[in-house]
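dude i think i finally got it to work??
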Amino acid sequence: MLPNSAGCYTADDAVLTARLARELLGTEWIKLEVIGDPDTLFPDVEGTLEAARVLVREGFVVLPYITDDPVACKQLAAIGCAAVMPLAAPIGSGLGIRNPWNLQIILEQATVPVIVDAGVGTASDVAVALEMGVAGVLLNTAVAGAREPVKMATAMRHGVEAGRLAFEAGRIPKKLYGSASSPVEGVVRGG
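look at this
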């Protein structure tokens, strides 16, 4: 079980929640959420950094939910977080990866695992994230809110498998113009 400080709007509340979870469940692991906006559920970057500093100092294994901000992700890694978990889109929105360029920068600069947290809606969103090279995707609403949750969970598993295989296989470079994949030597051409 992974305790979560979801619903906390201050660093102090998130730290208290983590401490209580450790006492109750006997785990040092915490998914850190410090929410900055009740409408979008975007994280409070400053509050997340503040809480992460305290929790890492106290020996917690911190998995912080954060914006798709490469600077904030680098700061969280430098603090000692076990991973960084940038959102793909607002929690529960199902919008998929809204800013693949920032996610790519985060992946290129990462010194800890990158886990997409929030905003995926279907298996293709998960596959895209894994194709980019993330270590994992944390999701709930996409399955819980699906018309057939068991089928959606199965689809998500296949999205993870397909995306990871594609990442490991290595995609071909994107190019503006096409190029033949079949040899052109010896092709008979009409007159």
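Helices lie at 11-25, 45-57, 70-79, 100-109, 123-132, 141-144, 149-169.
im so relieved honestly
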